[in-house]
Specification:
7 strands; seven-stranded mixed beta sheet; Four Helix Bundle (Hemerythrin (Met), subunit A); Rossmann fold; 21 helices; 441 residues; 434 Repressor (Amino-terminal Domain); alpha/beta; 3 domains; 8% strand
Length: 441
Amino acid sequence: MFENLSDRLDSVFKKLKGHGTLNEKNIDDGLKQVRMALLEADVNYKVAKNVISDIKTRALGQEVMESLTPGQQVIKIVNEEFTKMMGSSHQELNLGKSAMGSIMLVGLQGSGKTTTAGKLARYLRKEGRKPYLVPVDVYRPAAIDQLTKLGKQMDVPVFPSTTEMKPLKICQDAQLAAREAGCDTLLLDTAGRLHLDNELMAELEGIKTGINPSEILLVADAMTGQDAVNIAGEFDKRLDIDGFVLTKMDGDARGGAALSIKAVTGKPLKFIGVGEKTTALEPFHPDRMASRILGMGDTLSFIEKAQEAVDVKEAKALEQKLRKNAFTLEDFKNQMQSVRKMGSIQDLLGMLPGVNKKMLKDLNISDREFVRIEAIINSMTPQERANHGIIKSSRKKRIAAGSGTTVQDVNKLLKSYTQSMKMVKKFNKGGMRSLRGMLPF
């Protein structure tokens, strides 16, 4: 996400920080480059113009000119103004206090509504709610089948819609069915079209009037850039939507829609889709996103992902094993699986402060490497996993053959493991307390 913009801004800020003091010309030149970077990222022209004007006004004030580190102060101001441009703070779903909340998902065909419905169901369940999926797209039988399969995979109930039913009737019947099933949140996956038309809007207006949903969320494809922002404006005029979900953010290196949509429509971006899995939905935090764009990392999101993936009891048991130097290859595999639950390694490292895009490219980390390591450990006997010292030449050949890898791959894993154990021993000689302070428990 935002790769091109981050790279451009990084070079601009390096120049600004290189000046011991800043004058109006330095700041002007730097902000021209920032403006060009925003336009190249497909940010709305008026939005880019306004945010640069606001940054310039603040950058030429006492806050910067009398600072001991003026370059850093400019970056701080850019961070704050980017945050404001994207909405200042995260906007929660407003499901009201009634016994039955409802979220109506709208958007064009192909924007990712059905997948987003499944992702939201998982998110809501994690938040303690009981979602009920409702396929309302009677024009596309595949949409009904897709949502039904998603519901089965996640063990979330799905209303049995058919193509013969009327969309409003489906929604009304689903309300009753959801109550009987003990659910408290309807997720309405409405029909889309290839383009905006009156027939689509009239149908959606009818559902809105008949159901009075708690939230209407527009699902839009981030990769369409300013087209997504324009579509958002049209839907908002007719439906008065409550917010947005931008899908396919992981494939959008520019990010213009995410940066512009709140400033243009006045409505918040609430979630972003960052992959195909049902876990790949993130609440949108403008402050955290601004920090990521400016290369400052997103430590809070990293910690939240870690807390979701790591079991506290398991983590404490692991600490005891580390203290006693009893951390085996089986433990190594289990920890690796926990890390993989958190998402792509490249994305996780990108959340850490000081890790820039160039460093990630140079590291050339592949998630497939984890699959290879897991296969190697799975090919070992329980005795070998517990005591790597017994793994000699003949055993290495058997493990490599069983895992579809080479002896060199097995040697590489064993070397990484033994180096990790050496580091743990160093911590055990006095650094364990500081290590514990870094862990999320």
